[in-house]
User: Fold these one by one.
Assistant:
Number 1:
Amino acid sequence: MRIFVAVCVLMVLQGSAALAQNEASFGVMVEPKTARAGEAVAVWIDVDLSDDWHIYSATTPPGGPYPTEIVLSGEAFRQVGAVIQPRPIVEYDPNFEMNVEYYHPKVRFGVRAEVGEGMPGERVLSGEVIYMLCNATQCLPPNTYAFEIPVVVEAGPARAEYVFSPVEAPAVPLDGTGSVADVERAITEGLSAFLYLSLWMGFLALLTPCVFPMIPITVSFFTKQETQSRRESVTKSLAYCGGIIFTFTGLGMVLAATLGASGAALFAANPWINLLITAIFVAFALALFGLFEIRLPYGLLNKLNQVQGGSYGAILIMGFTFSLTSFTCTAPFVGTLLVLTAQGTWAWPILGMLVFSAAFASPFFFLALFPQSLAALPQSGGWLNSVKVVMGFLELAAALKFLSNVDLVWQ
């Protein structure tokens, strides 16, 4: 009976391995093909997946699916550095009860091997890829893909461009996910970089023609009223900032509710969504270049502008109104951040808009707290339009990044 069970288990495992090999095809290449002692060669492993199967990243957190692992061997080689991989799709998996990192429908992994001393001639670099495949209904047991690739080791001193340095940033494989400016860094490095970008977007949005000239006017409204104390002036400016933060964070909450727990990652993997995002970024860039303006309905703005009074509720609505009236200049900044949330989880829109709005509202509070600092503000002028133009080019860089995602999927 035990022999029968063992045979059945062996047949199941062999069948799973065969299925895994059918659902994933591998290609291996090495650069450079000729190397010297002390140099490092890069081994690139292309994985093409069929149907709805996906493979997990090398940085998949513990406690979940088996992460992709690449092991190199060979008497003339020593593996160095971590696995090189593009930005994975991050999605909450209810089966593992955690966020998982995966790729679909293709991915290129990379790893480096250093050439040892005294090994001239043609050498064989061997390796194994240990990986796990899953789809929406099942996961296959971890499987192994083995490969061998020849490398010619020639005599001579090591060339500087091929020497591996542990402190250098790993080269990104040529798979259409190359880096473009700060926006790409925010996309690839995760939540912390996204929040950092949100902070700077909030400050940059202040340096636009619709917003910057209004800062001293608005602060003076709170600080130069004779019938109120300084404490009341600061408190009212805080209420004004609350209106701004509520407006933008509310946008983030609406988007988070729309996306749900996994919608962001699904959007990020859809080439049509990436194509739409590319068009949105181009439109934002053209708006920043001054070709057209993004405006809210005048009827809505007129009704909000009719709100008067010195109560905290009225001042809160004033902050809300200011956020909407400045939308002509802030829309590209806000839109950029909301679009980038498609690269993360459902919480990204809320956190991003909270950080953005806090930075955007901060001058109104701190200048009310220290009104003498108003004299240090630079005068409005043409430099404000220059800021918009620079941000327009950043929007175009982001558009190219998302367009490269489309090209990667459709190749």
Number 2:
Amino acid sequence: MFMSSKRILLVDDEPAILRSLQRLLRRRGYETLTAESGVAALAMLETASVDVIVSDMRMPNMNGAEFLARARSLYPDVIRILLTGYSDMECTIKAINDGGIYGYLSKPWDGDQLLNLIASSCSRNLQVDKSAKVVLGMHRENQKLKQCVERQSREMAMSDQYVKDAYQSVQTHQQLTENCLNNLLEIKLKGHRDVCHKVASIARQIAGLLCLSGTDVQLIRKGAALYGIGKIALPEILLTLPQDQFTQEQKAAYLSYPVHTASLLMTFPAYREIADILILHKSYLDGTGYPARVEPDHQHLVADLLMVAVDYVEYSVGWVTGQRERHENTVAALQARSGQYDERLLAAVSTVTMEVTTLQNDVSIMVPVSSLVPGMLLHRDLHSPQGILLISKGTSLSENMIQQLRRLQANIEERLILDVRFQAQEPVIEEVELYPVQASC
């Protein structure tokens, strides 16, 4: 029989339901505590530690949403699950937003579904705890290094080379932090890293067409890499179900992820500026989305650009409709919601397409495996769909490597796109399928 050391707190004002839940969970080896009200449960939590709370929604004096919100503020590490037969949509949304619940089931609940939800939440919490410790340790090391640089910068005897080396170390730590955060989400949302690369590519091209500054381009790069990390706080169903199939409650919960992203990034001083930008990348110009803009007429260009790039890529890879979409269909879908976007950005994204062109040796391009030729230099690390590093940045592609990549491509559904440049001094390759890089400004 499956055994667990986890302790579950069950909260319901109906003793018969509590007994039924206890029998179900004890058969799986869970230790259970029970409370017949939110007030009693809060009192119990003062003296007893628990791993998971399973609470009914409709209870007298303090309903499930209010209780879970209180529990979240006092015991944020405890996983919260809601059982509801209550039809009030606002209460359910309040439980999702204020209570930060991991998941919910409708009454009458299915025993196997409840057991699977509890097991999944415990497993995820263990993985998050391990990864969070890694991120926290890296953050502390980053802070120590930053303080060291600031202190040494005040000393006139510091050499220019030392300053450059220290700055590079800070940048390296920041990159490691970004990688760790994205690895954490990749565990839960397969393909997330590849989507981030696509968002970065599309956003960089739009920025080039609009002749944005180097500072804005750096913010765009960082935003593309980090925009989705708040999704780690979402229930798994919201990361597997196509967005077009969301209920209103699920849509409201999903649109909260930019707030989770910003909250996480605000704990890192180096990311506070990008946090202020990313919180707006689902805040559409027509007042829809979340959070709603306080000043709908005010446009933050970097946030608006990331909004278009994210929506374009997530639609094209199938996260919205459940199937991959062609460029023309994706652009048409965005244009149908034209009031939500900056018209300049819509016009720019419509030019981001596969085209035939002549390339110069100093241009970085995105090409599929079928268009690779020996001598191309990999401009960015290539990872498998599972996140495994296949080829490192700077590698010169040989005929043997290209053949191996073609065999790999033939055995997987996801299309491999490589960011490459050329070593040759003369113009190279015509009729290559690519994403255009940028216009001259």
Number 3:
Amino acid sequence: MVDALLRSLSVGRACAIFDGGLGKFDIAAICHEVRCVNAQVGETFCITLSDAEQRVAGDELHSLGTVAIAKSQAEDGILVLKVWATRDTPPFSKHAEKRPVGEVRIPLRHLSDLCNCMLYFTWVNLESAGLNDSVAHLGYGNPFAANSSESFLQGIMSNPRQLMHPKACISLCRADQLAETDRLLWTKDLPRQDRVKRWGPLLRSQQQHAVMCTAQNLEAAQQQNGSGFLPQRLMHLRAQADEQAQEIELLQEQLQSASRSTTAPTSAEALDVLLNGGGDQWRQKPSMTLLEERTSRQLEEARGLAMQTEAALARRGREAEAHKELELQQSLSAQLRGELQSYEVELSKLGEEANNKIEAANIRIRALRRERDEASRALADRKEGNQKLQVLLQELEDEKSQLAQQKETLMRMVEDLHTCCNEAGLPAADRASIDSISGFKLPG
């Protein structure tokens, strides 16, 4: 419904404020190189990026090697990358004159399932610009929409072998995965998680370039050898066919000359021929016809044999190419298995180290827990001892206060006795003992 409203208002989804961002993401694409495309003198190549339903305007021109951003792409959408030829120079104007060169349609859902929504220096075939739209406009539906995933995968797999087909080398990823805003280049110092995530697209690119190099080497070898790529048997058969053709032409000339010389004989000549047994000359015509037919059959057989030999050689060439590609794939598989084993060994080492660290951490945790429990018990014992000391201190303070009261009472009693002695006139001979008693003080 949102798309229909946007189309009715002639507004792109990138300009919509009510998109909501549900299942939408931005796509960054770079076209590195274009090959096997007819270019006129003074023309340069550029690209535009849009979706198949034209929900996002894709009229901005980008030169080769620069990043193009497609805004708010749906997960099940089809991204259209078009290549144009123009005489304008960067930065390109939207109104610059340009002519379409080709286009490639990329199903985003299939790309996400195939290689994590990434392409890295991958060659794709360029189809005729607007071909799918024209077929759909004629009422035959969109053939690309029905088998977009299969067509896209088949194009990536068969592209390296089609050396003369128009093609483009592109890289594609989510816009938020760009390391830098102006280029897309993966280096070996990336984090391990990013390298694991980008391993699939990188491996696919390496396999595609390996197959393309093999195909180019085979073609270069055939061009250097010229016609020598056919075996000697094929050349011998062709020479034999040419010789038989010359013999047939010679026999046809002899037959024509013989027929001209025997078409209109005089009566005397005919009588002489009959008398001299010249009927054998008249019987030469059927024998010449049989010879011509037999020679024609031999020529046809030779040509058929030559064609069969060519087909067998072509089949052997395809089998040899398939065998080489199989060997290449086997070597790549062996290399990948070796890398997988190394990764498994590294993973086992990391797992062992992690287990050792976890075991050491568990031992340390158990020791800390024991120390914590011992400290808790010691703290409880000290608290209990402090409480006992506080009770004992309180008892001592109470006893001190009682002794102080008893001392005061005794002092008053002594003073009373001294006063009574003085009043009674008793001698003060024992006064020193009383002073010592009155001067006695308890330690504070």
Number 4:
Amino acid sequence: MKRAAFPVLLFFLAGCASLPAQKGGDNRELNWSGEIRLDKTLKLSRGTSLTIAPGTVIRLGWADEDGDGLGDTSIHLEGGKLTSLGTPEAPILFTSGQAPAQAGKWGELRVDFGSVELKYTVIEGSTRGLHLHFCSGLVEDSILRQNHDGTRIGESTMVFRRCLFSGQEGKGFNSRASRNLVENCLFRGNKRGIFLFEGDEGSVFRDNVFTGNEIPFRLGDFYEGELKLAPNRWDDPTDQYRPEGSTARVEFVNAPVTGAGPENWPLLWVKWKVPMEGYADALTADESGVYAVSFGGELKRLALFDGSLLASAKLLDTLDSPPAPGRVNNKPYLAVQCWNRGIYLLDGETLKELDSFVETSSPADDHRQSSPLIAGGKLFAATWAGKVRGFAITGGGLENLWEFAAGGPFRGDLALTARGELLAPSGDGSLYALGMDDGAKKWEYKARAPLLSGAEIFEEKVFIADKGGVLHSLGENGKLLWKSALSGPAWYARPLLAEGVLYQGDDDGGLSAFDPASGSLLYRVRLEGGIRSRPALAGGTLAVATAKGFLYLLRAADGFILDRLEIGESSLASPAVLGKLLFAGSRPGMIFGLNIESAGKKN
């Protein structure tokens, strides 16, 4: 599960210098592998060809050489050939020197008067992306994401096939006076999908998908004449394709297109979305549908495949913790907590209120509530008032059985061990194990910081993270087995143990993978935005939501970022996976139903 260890080549170049000749080799034939770091612009001598091995990572450090606030550290070839042929298993990555990659943190990958061949190559976090002048070549199955501009192409003849252009702050594909073929590409979430400055009348754009772009296609001020775009799928409006006063004309041919984007490369595809009344910070999914809640007190049961409304209810105050479905005597129920301190038992199909209990007020009555739990014919709820309550579900009503009082509020979700112990993490820093029948304390584990997230349970072991940034592994009766440090505090991020690996997010955007037996770190990846939710495993990929509003798709084996989709201003809801379906929630208020698909294979 660990990443392979590669040799690291560090080039500390003063200004814009040429790379010295390789010892015992040809100065014009340069080969890179492993991990390369450039802290200054690297300009190769004229005619040099650069070949990059699969799995190579090139990190370009920050340097603003012209004072415009954008990174300028670059790689520049003139008159040679750039060959960057990765594979789905070992892609080649050009990225910023410091994670997470953000637009404008380094300059460009530039080739003049040369040839280019790229495959399974990722270019992210740059100012000008792939910058080509008087070039020819082929770019296939590659990803240009989170750059200022994905490309800048002038007077070239290029083929772009099955590529992803995603999240560019400026232009996804920017070209001038060129004859390019762009086919089977996915343009998603760019400010401008394609921008043709002038003189690209001979270019062909066909069988591409445009979705979620601010403007999918735009002509420059100097573009003249008419252009017919071969069949593409236009999910975005195309009415702003030309500047004001321009006489240029574009004919858009719309057609159903499938299979856009890199082959055998999993991507996030939105299949449906449903607005909510206020922040959508929590959801749960089972075979009955998606149960989604909002800050507006709204509760919806949505159909899994199309998001259609199956049932709804309106409660008296904010809902921000996952609804808890469960069955008693084969009847479906749903339990929720509400900011009016109410604990509600609802019919699991109609969402009709059956019974409720109102907790006493406390100084902690604000923000995140614990998710209830239905098990063994009972409903359990942990409250802001520092109490855990057990109710019997009888005849569709609640019978108060017991209560347990702690020294702080409960915000983390409840969990149940195989031994029938109810685990309640408290803001007082203790994890309490309680008896289901009487609420008696079986054992207590004291962490050194508040416990705001729920516990993960596997066989006889318990895993939980604290607000101080420590992940704890406990054995029988709460005995400490090991502790490991995270890269930041853990708020509401519950751990996930899946396929023998323990995953944990933190508020600094770190997603860490641990060996659950020893606590040793397998890998850590830095994402944009804090992680206040639990990851979800879908096949060999991990879905992770962040507080900056991004939904990430990672390769579970090593944390490599396969895709990133902006779904809102913030995303605090834990993604849910059911079969081949993925569900997510965001602020200011939207529930998403997604598939994970690639052009050559559906996962």
